[in-house]
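Hello again, I could really use a second opinion on something today. I've been staring at a protein lately and its backbone has me curious. Please have a think about how the structure follows from the sequence. I owe you a coffee for this, so here goes:
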Amino acid sequence: MRRRFQLGEILFRQGDPSDVAIQILSGSADVLRGVGEDAIVLGTVQAGEFVGEMGVLEGRRRSATVRATSPLEAELIERRAFLDRVSDEPELARKLLVRMSARLRDVEDMLTRLYAAHSSEDDPRGELVEALPPGRAARSIMLTATTDRARSFIGADLMPITRLPFTVGRQPDQDEAPPVIALDLAIPEPAPYRLSRAHFSLIGRNGEVVVRDLASTLGTIVNDRPIGRDFPADSAPLHEGENTIVAGGRGSPFVFAVTLS
């Protein structure tokens, strides 16, 4: 079923049942997450992209609100019809399988690191840390904070990244459990939080350096492309030169530059 939405109209709200997957045919929409009394914009979905499809597959309620940022036309696909479409369209099925496989791999990585943390006192990641991509050992990867608030937590110096994965997250408070994934950069952010305890990782994949959102609450934006559980992808590759990573939704003070050379 096709439907038109006007500027500012809500496609669905956080907490609603995930009864339809939505493909944006024209226009664009913001994805928002309610945090306390605030609504934080996590990013924008564009024409040609799906939104809410993972909630339909997983049978969980909407984790965010989607609001039209322009006159918008969308196709609303009921769950049974969406599953039939996945069966009929190999490319769509492949994208969904890749995404679900990446999430499963994240769980396996977490379990592996948890085991390693109990097996090694010197290095909580033991010998299980992934090296830099094959053939790229001489590559330089540098990270720096680009906003005043981020610099106030981690300083303004360039930070060399010499091995992957490299995980960034929030240092847990005293009453919180530590993240299962060992953090390479733990940021002591006070409440209210924009960062998750394990927010994103830089990983090596097929000769590339990739940013993977770790199912964070407010998502990650890589070179203006939002990734995370509320968006069509959980990861995005970095390019040569300077890349911008925003952790915690649009307008977050946690903005980093990662430079590959």
